[in-house]
Amino acid sequence: MSEIPEPKIIKSHRSSITIQITENGELIVKAPFYAPKFAIQKFIDSKKDWILKTLERTKKRLPIKREYIEDEKFLYLGKEYNLKIGKFKEISLSRDNLNFPLGLLFRIKAELENWYIKQAKKVIHERLNYQAKQMGTNFKSVMFSDTKSKWGTCFHDNSLQFNWRLIMAPLMVMDYVIIHELTHTTEKNHSNDFWRNVGKFTPAYKQHRKWLNENGHLLKI
Ligand SMILES: [Zn+2]
To answer: How far is the CA of 179 from the centre of ligand 1 (A)?
Structure first.
């Protein structure tokens, strides 16, 4: 059983005690000025289960810390590749490997990011055109972004925007986001009709949404 971390106690003009766990797994307790230490401890103890459960979840969702070393895992279309640094002419995929030229190692993050963005533009364009045809729908234009927690957007004029990090997700998940935004070209809300139409072209959309919620933080370079 894991332990409850030492809380950071913030006292202020408030009337009740609340607890909060930050993204970094820090336990923050906000308490009134007059709250005695034992009352705060009692409150923390009463929330023990919630604190431990939330900490566990926070730990799992902590972003990846990259080292850019041999055999580090990188995602591409949902598959894990091992980083190989060597005498390669350019960045490429082969079998289970993501090959990276040794000479570019000093700026590996930027080089990988450029490469992923290039692939994303190509694949998302292809899938977008394919799905639009399937669905008999049209869009105005497409842009690419790196908006955190936002995978796709359909603007009022039916121009679309996608997060290039989707190239790291499985193709079916990428397709779901594309279909979701294409459905918005005719339906701007998230009504039951909207979801019914999404389901026509991606029946397992609930699973894909769940995948993004649970794994979105892993789509990092
Ligand atoms: Zn939407």
So the answer is: 10
Q: Which conformational region is residue 27 in: left (phi greater than 0), alpha (psi within -120 to 50 degrees), or beta?
A: beta
Q: What is the pTM of this model?
A: 0.75
Quote the ligand 1 centre to 90 CA distance (angstroms).
37
β-bridge partners, 83: 98
Sheet containing 73-76, strands listed edge to edge, beginning at the edge strand earlier in sequence:
73-76, 79-86, 97-101, 92-94
Distance 206 CA to ligand 1 centre (A): 13
Residue 149 is predicted with a pLDDT of 67
CA of 127 to the centre of ligand 1 (A): 18
CA distance 80 to 99: 13
Distance 194 CA to ligand 1 centre (A): 9
Q: How far is the CA of 199 from the centre of ligand 1 (A)?
A: 13
pLDDT one-digit tens code per residue, 138-149: 999 999 998 776
CATH topology of domain 112-218: Zincin-like (3.30.2010)
Q: Where are the domains of the chain?
A: 8-60, 112-218
pLDDT in tens, 62-98: 767 899 999 999 999 999 999 999 999 999 999 999 9
What's the CA-to-centroid distance between 100 and ligand 1, angstroms?
Answer: 36
